[in-house]
Protein 1
Amino acid sequence: MVDTEPRTKAGAPRPAAKKKRAEAVRAVKSAGGITLRHRLRRDRTLILMTLPAILLLVVFAYIPLAGNVVAFQEYDPYVADNAFQAILQSPWVGFDQFQQMVNDRLFWSALRNTLAIFLIQLTLFFPVPVLLALFINSFVRPRVRAVAQAVLYLPHFFSWVLVVTVFQQMFGGAGLIAQTLRDHGHDGIDLMTDPGLFKFLITFEMIWKDAGWGVIVFLAALASVSPDLYEASAMDGANRWRRMWHITLPALRPVVALLLVLQVGNALTVGFEQILLQRTAVGPGASEVLDTYVWNVGITNGGFSYAAAVGIVKGIFGLLLVLAANKVAHLMGEQGVYKK
Amino acid sequence: MLAGKLNGRQQQGPLVRGRLRPVWEEEPTRAGLATKGVVLVGVCLAVLFPLWVVIVTSLSSVKTITETGGLVVIPRGITFVAYQELLGGGQVTRATIVSLCVTVVGTLFSMTVSVMCAYGLSRSGSVLHRPFLFILLATMFFGAGLIPTYLVVQGLGLTDSYLSLILPSALNVFNILVLRAFFMSTAQELIESARIDGAGDFRILWQIVMPLSRAVIAVITLFYAVGYWSAWFNASIYISDPDMLPLQNIMNQLVLKQERPVGLAQAINTGGLSPLAIQMAVMVLALLPVAVLSPFVQKHFKKGMLTGAVKG
């Protein structure tokens, strides 16, 4: 290290320099005993290793965040060859897009659908993994558990295209059920194109795909319960149902609270890919949610600015929902996503 | 995997020989066991039966398919003609190759960047460790939204390039945090002693930390690979050249939109090939790699998920 300290010709520190030096020593001590430059040198490989990821996030998460300015413009992709240039050259319109949104019947319809689907999923999907976990946990044979888990985890790894096609082959107009009904002289049914059933259909698809996967967290929570509790309560005469009520279920409470918070935080993001694949079959009236609306207005019809405005509103409300839900979790005495 | 371990029943004191239950626990009734068995079989069938039908139909001959009036449940007259046609060059073959390549290259890229980043952030106390971690975590709370992301990808000139299928979705912050939590739990003494022996960070990562984290690395690799293999949305908005579309998009066209596969129309029209068998065969191609790979990694799932849930 180069000694940069000002010294007198005699080599002894001047009084002013003395004070400065004391400050520097304090700074160095609070930084772990070495200077920042030294630490940068020491950690340069670590920084180098982290940089590619940071760069990717900046380009594909932070720059798009700034790109949301198009919501305050009348973005025209054709004023320049490049999207960045086009953003610079498009005219500013302030909050016009947001005003338009308030008066947009389709926006409100998409919002209604989104919330309806969220509520249906909350009541029908959410309890299933808990029940499945309790069920699997009730088996004592390792083989049975392993097989059940292997089978139940599998659909989680299928793409939505595959899941939707599987459902179509089972419940669609040419599907197995319709086929069986026709073979026995009934009319075929087509559950895939019924707008009234759509919200339940996609919830059912979600249960098929992801309920098994959701089991993992709950099983882990169950595994961490001390067996002493069960034994003690059994000694006190609690039968299996009481043990489940007083020991097993309370053990699941923190995980349930955490997942509820996450779920509520995602309330405005329901089944984008899944719905996109099926929206033509039932029409936008029943299936349009905020995400598909943004896709439809922006990507398909080129209304980038308006779609971005819808996206921003959705993002802000999503964030508020997470914060609110977490607050409620804290009030309930649970930890939630982040601590207080 | 021992039930005792999972249930925490192992420390339960002396178990009666051949019994998995602790002595104080009631023996289940026959009726109870039967009900549980039926439910279990029912749940498993709900998952497996549709897949069975898809696989059997894809292997059935035109004759069998016409006789049953559509989907086949009981296998008769097995033939691989649908697969031969699909994989004999042409649209589906090309799409399968595209999907495989994107998956392999993408997964390698994602894993390299993620593992390096996770290791770089796993040594708390290093410079810039906090701001970098903040940059990572903040992205979990906001999403930039579809439109601006689309505009950035377009602005970078990535549309109609395979890079648009990899770069925008290359990183999953949650995965990085899981890896990081694992790396942090690696014994610090090992890292320190390697450092004293003169190993640099890359060497420590490659020769000490990664071999010790095989389980979680397998899980995260599978997550990334499945992500790339299952992706179709990016291709649907960024790729306009039909020859560049991955398998999932082709499956969407062939099965959901009921389009005829390019180049196979003749075989179908002359009755040598059932369009239904073709559709089912495409579905089998799409599900096969995932169904084959995931069971191998399965025993590590719990570990990976838990670390993420607790420390993420």
Protein 2
Amino acid sequence: MEKPRFATKAAKAVAVVVVLGLVLIPFLVIVSTSLASNREVVDNGGWVLWPSDPTLRAYRTILDGGIVTKALGVSVGLTVAGTLLSLACTTFLAYALARPGVFGGRPVLLLILFTFLFPPGMIPAFLLVKGVGMMDTYAALIAPVLINVFNLIVLRGFFQGIPEELYEAARLDGAGDWHILWRIVLPLSKAALAVVSLFYAVSYWNAWFHASIYMESDHWPLSQVLRTYVIGGSQIADTGLSEAGQVSAPQTTQMAVLVIATVPILLVYPFLQRYFTKGVLTGAIKS
Amino acid sequence: MVPGLAYFLVFHYGAFIANAVAFKEYVPFDGLWASPWVGTANFERMFGDPDFWHAMWNTLFIAVLQLVFFFPAPLALALLLHSLTSDLLRRLTQSVIYLPHFLSWVVVVALFQQVLGDTGLLNTTLSDAGLHTVDIIGNPDAYKPLVVIEVIWKDAGWGTIIFLAALMQVDEQLYEASAIDGAGPWRRFWHVTLPSIRPIIILLLIMRLGDILSVGFEQMLLQRQSVGPEVGEVLDTFVFWQGIVGGDTGYAAAAGLFKGVVGAALVFTANRVAHRLGEQGVYK
């Protein structure tokens, strides 16, 4: 190919910079504002691009045992427990569906794909959770979303890609299904498992709607707290958000909640990012 | 296999059966099964309800905006990324643009409010510069473009993955051959790149069509208040408002069921059209 012209190059560079800026600047502003002192925020009209004198006061205030601390605990617990349960159930089901000759494999697969095409709907799902007595239990946030069909298909595709000879060899050595799954299939599927667990963890961490309809405020995860105090703009002081009773500029406090809700994702993201393309595509192409 | 299957039977098929409530007058005290059947009364009421048609109109309007502006965005971004010659820059950009996909709608909406709200970054900057401030978040006219811009910000980067993979599989020799035949960059794009990734584009388009009546439930619900139901109500929020907030369960379930049936019908139709045109479609 001939060398691209200078104008094309420049246009591309500008486009890339604009795209990067659009994503990164909001993050920068929010982190900066959460770290700024109250006075600086007020002087700036509510905004700080780069704090001149960073302080962790906003974080100390909200993490002092008030509602944010509690919600953080709920979110962490929900994410860990939910991810482990979902990952286990998805793996078992994907393995069963990936092996030829499992009793009822084909109809079960169709049965599952059908739910993808025709989801049951919000009201029936709500009635069901209510009907089985799961209101205001953490089970209501896990059980209805236990297995994600897309994740299931990704894993199944991956398991099917493992050479048949490995299964046969293991069988000859007298290994059962559990043994094969644990010793052979799982170690070979690390990339897919990493992606699927990230997807589950993110969805549990971000879960908001179900929490808002199923849970009492004592059991709210962080996203519902964020919705109430940042988007809803409810006053922070009169709800016990800060037990210490310090009056902090609401802007810095709001930004701090926002940062706390985002940071865990930013932390796991770089470790798992390299698996994305591989994991997502095996699933997408196979399905 | 048993717990997984049990999950699908209970929470999908169980809930599926609970759709029967759409044909009932739900009385909470009696429960789902004892409530009286009312035939299609809920559906008849729905078709005569101006609020329902409002929600329908908003849904379709936003869906069309998304189709025109959001659908091509990942493709354009992917083409840009694909054309970058520096490997490092491309990877860096990819990492950054995937990121917003992993933020929840609560975070994204909060973020947009903080940047574009009346005391947000944009307006503070404008008023500092002595200019007029603009009310974007609370302005009903700006609502529909705003929600589409939010979706683009959140998911356009993530959407590039599948296009990038498709672009990677385009045969280099085709480019070389057409370059030798004297095709310029635009001709190569038009006659080599686009036809090569056409199946993927059509596949995604079909999937989008099947989902056309779902235009971001959480996103809409979070922002419905700021502009009111006239502008902000879509089918999903209509179902939520009627059924879960208003307690009009049978009626809301009817609206939800209607949405589901139309969506499934659209996928089948789109898939069939794709087959007719000689494309692969989605199978299923």
